[in-house]
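Task: sequence design from structure.
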């Protein structure tokens, strides 16, 4: 019998190609039809392998979900950027490849990001997502988030509402 390994670990620069693939697939699935085509395509092209290689060395912590040697998802975490909110930590991004969604791996990656922020001394966290992203909003509500903040994002002239989910 084979054992399937599932690990959440810090990203390394040599993970950049696979993280780029996760980003492209996850964002295309999540945002096609929400974000206008041109700005979405530009964002996907900008976040290429080189961008992710630099991100793995950058100030934000980049975690990957490694399933049997395949990068199935990633999360970026750091200090809360919204100074009006009292939470110390923020999950900037959390995404899975579409084929790995719906089987509990997102919950595992989310739990590890929360544990990491807590271990770094962060009290509470915030996660922002587009209001019209039903999969994201339902995920964060299911996992105890309270939508206590809102804002706007501009994507090539399209103004989209975003929700800030918080955890104490």
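Answer:
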């Amino acid at each position: 019998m084979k054992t399937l390994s599932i690990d959440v670990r810090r990203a390394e620069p040599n993970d950049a190609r696979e993280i780029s693939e996760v980003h492209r697939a996850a964002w295309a699935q999540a945002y096609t039809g929400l974000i206008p085509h041109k700005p979405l395509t530009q964002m996907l092209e900008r976040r290429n392998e080189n961008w992710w290689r630099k991100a793995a060395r950058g100030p934000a912590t980049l975690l990957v979900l490694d399933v049997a040697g395949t990068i199935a998802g990633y999360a970026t975490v750091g200090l809360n950027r919204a100074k009006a909110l009292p939470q110390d930590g923020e999950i900037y991004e959390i995404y899975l490849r579409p084929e790995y969604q719906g089987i509990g791996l997102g919950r595992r990656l989310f739990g590890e990001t929360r544990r990491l922020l807590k271990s770094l001394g962060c009290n509470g966290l915030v996660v922002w997502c587009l209001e019209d992203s039903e999969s994201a909003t339902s995920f964060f509500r299911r996992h105890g988030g309270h939508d206590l903040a809102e804002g706007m994002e501009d994507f090539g002239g399209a103004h989209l509402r975003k929700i800030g989910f918080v955890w104490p």
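The mean pLDDT is 95.
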